[in-house]
Specification:
Bound molecules: adenosine monophosphate, magnesium ion
CATH architecture of the largest domain: 2-Layer Sandwich
CATH topology of the largest domain: Nucleotidyltransferase, domain 5
CATH class of the largest domain: Alpha Beta
Order of helices and strands: EEEHEHEHEEEHEEHEEHHEHEHH
Radius of gyration: 20 Å
Number of helices: 10
Strand order of the largest sheet: 3-2-1-4-5
Oligomer: single chain
């Protein structure tokens, strides 16, 4: 009989402070806690120092709640996992300090986790996917990847803005946000509901790479020109979303045709978007591939994805000395060797 492995994971790369706890006994792996708290700026975008202060303030409460939910004590865990990057320096340091301290205090191993890898692994875990074409879209990342030779390999990515950042920046500059998400919907989607006409906007893809900055500038210029006209703003929101999503679907289709994968997995915060899901699932179906998109509870930043990826690391012997566990703001997904991936 295999013993139970319990891993607590800490997420603090950007706006969210989260604690997840995973229990694993051989094939039986379960998420037993996923408690998160998001910093929402009163105005403007994410202020890294303010977000870090939010994390420091909420950490004790979130930690307590997560262990209560899991029904275990901190000392019961087999190891602590922490997201060391990529992300915002001040935010990353909150999770890293906490994890280093707990690992040293309880004398339990520390497992380093790359945040981008965690977004992918939680999606694979939820759907039992083993070799998907990965579409990772969030506030800070937009890329298409596949696994090969123990790493995730990036086939294409944004050359400038990430997709989430495009939607958020447009919403903010056009006076629609914050908040960016209302009742689970992005404010650009809510605004698009008032639109009915498609306006052609810059559509820029190169091979499997994309560029969103021209699209943002053009949409903002139009919004400025038609200030005070809600119908026109609706048309602009609709056109911005459709153009950006169609660009993503086209590069994903190019990658799918190239790699001939039979699974398509959408991960990251923007995976919560129903319009994007619909487009990608249709595209996958056209190529006889199975589509899955991470559900909202696990698509945005969360502690469970760090705990689960930490669990994979733990059972494969991945460890880091707490004294060496420094944060890496620009730690790319394709820089990490992952012992659980096939050769
Ligand atoms: P993450 O950094 O992975 O937590 O993702 C956050 C990003 O996801 C932000 O840019 C959000 O605006 C975006 N996001 C969250 N929910 C939605 C949604 N329903 N539609 C579009 N974007 C979303
Ligand atoms: Mg993220």
């Amino acid at each position: 009989m295999l013993g139970e492995v319990l891993i607590a994971g800490f997420e603090s790369t950007s706006h969210t402070f989260g604690v997840g706890i995973v229990s694993g006994r051989g094939e039986d792996v379960r998420i037993i806690a996923n408690i998160n708290d998001k910093y929402v700026p009163l105005k403007g975008g994410i202020h890294p120092r303010e977000a870090a202060q939010h994390h420091v303030k909420t950490a004790p409460r979130i930690l307590k709640k997560a262990f209560e939910k899991a029904g275990i004590s901190i000392g019961d865990v087999s190891g602590f996992a922490v997201s060391l990057g990529p992300g915002l320096g001040p935010c990353l340091r909150v999770g890293a300090s906490l994890a280093r301290f707990l690992s040293s205090y309880y004398n339990k191993p520390l497992i380093p986790v790359n945040h981008a890898v965690a977004h992918v692994e939680i999606g694979k875990f939820l759907y039992g996917f083993n070799d998907p074409l990965i579409i990772y879209v969030s506030g800070g990342n937009t890329l298409i990847a596949v696994q090969r030779k123990k790493r995730y390999r990036v086939l294409g990515e944004t050359l400038d803005l990430p997709l989430g950042n495009l939607l958020d920046t447009f919403a903010r500059e056009a006076g629609l946000a914050p908040p960016y998400i209302v009742n689970g919907k992005h404010v650009v989607d809510l605004c698009a509901e008032k639109g009915s006409n498609f306006i052609p906007l810059p559509y820029s893809i190169k091979g499997i790479d994309l560029s969103f900055s021209g699209l943002l500038t053009a949409a903002l210029k139009l919004a400025e020109k038609h200030k005070g006209d809600p119908d026109k703003l609706g048309d602009i929101c609709l056109s911005l979303r459709e153009t950006a999503f169609n660009m993503l679907v086209e590069v994903a289709e190019r990658a799918l045709v190239l790699t001939r994968k039979k699974q398509v997995l959408l991960v990251g915060g923007v995976a919560a978007n129903t319009y994007l899901k619909e487009k990608l699932s249709k595209m996958a179906e056209l190529h006889n591939a199975i589509y899955a998109g991470t559900p909202p509870e696990y698509s945005g930043d969360n502690g469970a994805m760090i705990a689960y990826t930490g669990y994979l690391g733990y059972i494969h012997g991945l460890r880091i000395d707490p004294e060496r566990a420094v944060v890496r703001q620009r730690w790319r997904i394709d820089e990490v060797d992952l012992p659980w991936l096939p050769d």
